[in-house]
Amino acid sequence: MNSPFIYSNDNKRYHTYNYYTRQKYGSKVYKVCIDAGFSCPNRDGTVGYGGCNFCSERGSGDMIPDTENIELQIQGGFEIMNRKWNGAQAIAYFQSYSNTHAPLHALKKLYTPYFFDDRFISIDIATRSDCLDQEKIAFFKSMSVHKEVTFEIGLQSIHHQTGLWMNRGHDLNSVVECVNALKEANIPVCLHIINGFPNESVEMMLETARFCASLKPEMIKIHMLHVIKDTPLGQSYLQEPFDIIDQETYVDLVIAQLELLPPETVIARLTGDGVLDDVLAPLWTLKKVSVLNDIDKEMARRNTVQGRLYKPTSI
Q1: Which of 37, 120, 219, 267 has the least CB density, counted as fewest CB within 10 Å?
Q2: What CATH number does the domain located at 17-302 have?
Q3: 17: part of which helix (H) or strand (E)?
Q4: Where do the domains of the chain lie?
């Protein structure tokens, strides 16, 4: 079929991760999620305690099999993959907490075997910008000749007050320096941003998207703020609920953000996955397919595409 968007071979009007991986690897790709036992510097006292106020006790790894044994986690991940997509290729995704929050020698011991593990076509590592220094980046650059590694960096918002509100523990400049250092090392970057912080207007969230566009990451993940049980945010929400944007507003916002992003930027996610029993609000986020379908239909109705309003700049 004739696609309305350059980086698509179906009805999608944005650069989907599925399109990107099929073009690159020639097949469906599945991420095998791993909890390697890390913490975060704003949890363990390095820069603070409590972690980001929205983050669960699993460090965003709520879908990972509940075992500390990494090999058992991997086996469980492959079982899920083979049930869903027999014949798919796998990426090792170190997801929970900050997966470079350790001395370099410990990172070398953990990660080196996966660069030679034929079960995986590449490696994804989720971490914080303040957990990657030049020595660590140099190590991963040296290993990337064996297998590609992508870093997923949590930005969430460019706004200082939001960073304080969520207890992030680092500033925007930390992210800029980290992204630029990774790009200089030719290591792909996936930025994470979150929509729906209670102190942010729609324009503030669009400013975050514009800033991301200026950094030119290879990928971006867009999430809606989940209010999760047994988190600092969840506890405060139960005591004093705040207004949360509805699905229609979210769809409009995401489309506006997509229009601001470069067309070549891969959209690795447009809404997060919440665990049914843990999500306090907004409950519409549990209907992921409905959200994605609404985005597709509204983009088609407006006859718009990712990058329509993109203006090249640099930081």
Answers
A1: 37
A2: 3.20.20.70
A3: helix 17-25
A4: 17-302
